[in-house]
Please model this.
Amino acid sequence: MTAQPETITTAKIFPHPLNAWYVAAWDHEVNRKPLARTIAKKPLVLYRTTDGKPVALADACWHRLAPLSKGKLMGRDEIQCPYHGLQYNSAGRCTHMPAQETLNPSATVPSYRVEERYRYVWVWLGDPELANPDDIPDMSQMSSTEWAGDGKTIHADCNYQLVLDNLMDLTHEEFVHSSSIGQDELSDAEFETTHDGRTVTVTRWMRNIDAPPFWLKNMRDKFPGFEGKVDRWQIIHYTYPSTICIDVGVAKAGTGAPEGDRSQGVNGFVMNTISPESDRSCHYFWAFMRNYCLDSQLITTQLRDGVHGVFGEDEEMLKAQQEAIEANPDHEFYSLNIDAGGMWVRRILEEALQAEGRATTVAPKA
Model:
């Protein structure tokens, strides 16, 4: 079904569900040196055991709450508190106390479920009985041999929901990214929004248009000297709680891309997963993956750096938006037709928060 919401008010930002998989780090960030990272307001220490398994513990010693991330790993995979030397195993159980042989049975720190998939380390911070690895959002392009690419992390000074809003409505490209991927046709093109209990999809096609600078370069990477009109697509796939993979690309106009034949074009996936840090900050993990010129490290680097520049424009706008929200606490958001996808995302998040008993508002039906 297609959502066509009225112009109505809605909550500006939501708290974050806890019964969900969030990315804590890129896989290469987690090693034998303890890493501190806060996810969903929970300070964590991340590291790997000697057999390579990632571990996530609460970053606070049972004794005096000293940050374990400032400690070091000992020979049997224990992490040692930097303050008084208490040691904990990967399950969070204290295995050593200084100057005493008897261990206090309450000497534990929380240990969280961790999964490694799609070049990321994922953590579950809610009810461990509900942690099902099958619920990790599909980001298979990240690890498929049929796709190539790379990405970075943005520490965004805004609530994670604002990033989700930004990614679910790409008409902002016409105004924020006018020199790279934006063009007038974005606002003019019709779109379709579909959804279920965990996902939302927004589909937009722009036929027989000029390719914007970013996509013209990519077409010429694959088809040197390309000229002419293109058919352009943006298919936004959201998966609970905060992963958005965007199927994007252009193909020579009239060669069948809308019907499924993309052979005369270039196809990319913008992979985005956003992990809340606090109510006003988040970790924005992203990558751009492509299915052409797979062996070219030059194109991989150019695309990563180019997309990073585009996202830098978003980062500036989102920070300003967060500051305006804090300066205008009584102002409610208004929603337009272009916000349909984002409103369904908000509905899914609100229902998850209600299930956890943590809902603060009722999101309007789209």
In short: The chain is about 20% helix and 30% strand. The two ends are 11 Å apart (CA to CA).
